[in-house]
Amino acid sequence: MYDAAPFAAAAPRRLTVGVADGTGTGGWDWRASVAARVGTVAGAWEGTGVRARVAAPRRTPGRPRIRALRRGLVPLALVVLAVALLGCDAPMSTSEIEGSWNKEVWKPYWVIIWLAGIVFVAIMAATIVLSLMYRERPGREARQIHGNTKFEVVWTIIPVVIVLVMMVPTLDSLFKLDEEPPADALKVEVIGHQWWFEFRYPELDIVTANELHIPEGRVVDYALRSVDVIHSFWVPQLAGKVDMVPGRDNRMAFSALNARPEPYLGQCVEFCGTSHANMRFRVFVHTAEDFERWAREQAAPRVSSVSRTAEEAFLAAPCLGCHTVRGTNAAGIAGPNLTHVGSRTTIGSGMLENTPAELRRWIANSSAVKPGSKMPPMAQSAGGTLTDEQIDVIIGYLQSLK
Predict the structure, then answer these.
(1) Residue 288 contacts by C-beta under 8 Å, 6 or more apart in sequence?
(2) pTM across the whole model
(3) Domain 186-299 classified CATH 2.60.40.420?
(4) What are the 10-residue block averages of pLDDT along the chain, 402 residues in total?
(5) Fold for domain 308-400?
């Protein structure tokens, strides 16, 4: 009999050779060698009945379980990621309900979310139950159904009911948001400029910029307008977006639910030019007592703790052509009112902290900080007329205007 040991040793995998007729005669078949190397040997000697086969590698018992575990970890990781994202701080998120407007808007949303959840669970449950009840089985033939009036009526009524359930709270919220504000509502005029916000309190004789102050729990009636292009007023945690259109007053009214030391962030959300993304503002919500204190301070004339010489230096500079400081002959209206600029937390429409260093950057060359800024450069190094010493004096004066 032909010795098959050399053939088995040469193969890359374990080779088992069986002889059918016991003769062991015949020549070498190259096809068997190739087949043995790829693991699919079907024969070894031509015309002899000798069969050769390669034993399949044994599978590790734990591998299917590992693969199944890996498949299960993917959706679990996605769920954990989603929960983590929901827990992140999101100052520009509309899901942080801090205003009466947002609270009213979210009422129909909660109805829709619950309805969607119920529909999802019902459909998934029906899919699983029907898949098990009517799965393919030996000897069972599928019964074809061509139309069912009862089912079709039910399938039509259910969506109509769902839409009606969503429509009722939606219309209710729309009508409530369109109601006239109460007579004791605080009136605030919001005026959009390229690229900053002006806030006027006509009943309190206050004009400020880029920082809105309101009392908690009291409805504020906003008159929204623009002096140049279309802007949009938006404080995500308090209320929705309303456009500010030249030549037209749009209105909205809402109250802030909670006073807090941190400001709510606002933003223009209608593209309005080069620095549209830099047109920001802050909303400070006070208790009733703190708001009254702030209003008294803002309605008073300017109070400066520096010398009269510093004020004269400010009035001799080009600043008075665009800015107002109450109690002085600076009465410009092209730029923000600076009567109490020292009490603000930011400058440049929320771009920079109100510090001497940042104020120097802004005065020296505002366009380098805020592209397209209409305030011309003031420092001599940037093409303006003021020396570094003059800028230092002006910074000291502005910082003292509390």
Answers:
(1) 215, 216, 217, 218
(2) 0.72
(3) yes
(4) 47 42 46 48 44 50 57 67 62 88 93 93 93 84 80 90 93 92 96 96 95 96 96 95 95 95 95 95 96 94 79 90 90 92 94 95 94 93 92 93 88
(5) Immunoglobulin-like (2.60.40)
